[in-house]
């Protein structure tokens, strides 16, 4: 079983533990995702195809957030110089 794990402090100061491991689900190759923080503990089993789609959608969402942040910085800079 392949396992990837990390621990980090999120934006509000909580220590978060994340672990992902390969695990067969009803005969289909899949991923078990475990996320734990001070107020929650979650396990999710997804197929590899589902994991790929989630990965893609998270990338899109993070790009959108990054674009919004860059636009906000540019707008603030323009209003400061205008």
Helix-strand pattern:
EEEEH
Distance between the termini: 58 Å
The major β-sheet equals: 4 strands, antiparallel
Question: Could you please say which CATH topology applies here?
Answer: Nuclear Transport Factor 2, Chain: A
Largest sheet strand order: 1-2-3-4
Question: What is the approximate shape?
Answer: elongated
Number of helices: 1
Q: What key attributes describe this structure?
A:
82 residues; alpha+beta; Nuclear Transport Factor 2, Chain: A; four-stranded antiparallel β-sheet; 4 strands; 41% helix; elongated
What does this structure look like?
The protein is built from one helix and four strands. The protein has 82 residues and is an alpha+beta fold. The protein has one domain: Nuclear Transport Factor 2, Chain: A, CATH 3.10.450. Strands 1-2-3-4 form a four-stranded antiparallel beta sheet. A hairpin with a 5-residue loop joins strand 1 (3-9) and strand 2 (15-25). The protein is elongated and about 60 Å long.
Topology:
Elements: E1 3-9, E2 15-25, E3 28-36, E4 41-47, H1 48-81
Antiparallel strand pairs: 1-2, 2-3, 3-4
Summarize this entry quickly.
This protein has 82 residues and is an alpha+beta fold. Helix content is 41%, strand content 41%. The protein has a four-stranded antiparallel beta sheet with strand order 1-2-3-4.
């Amino acid at each position: 079983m392949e396992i990837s794990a990390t621990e980090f402090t999120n934006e509000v100061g909580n220590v978060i533990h994340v672990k992902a491991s390969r695990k067969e689900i009803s005969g289909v190759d899949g991923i078990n995702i475990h996320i734990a923080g001070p107020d929650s503990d979650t396990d999710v089993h997804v197929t590899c195809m589902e994991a790929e789609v989630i990965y893609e959608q998270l990338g899109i969402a993070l790009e959108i957030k990054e674009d919004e942040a860059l636009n906000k910085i540019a707008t603030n800079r323009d209003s400061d110089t205008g």
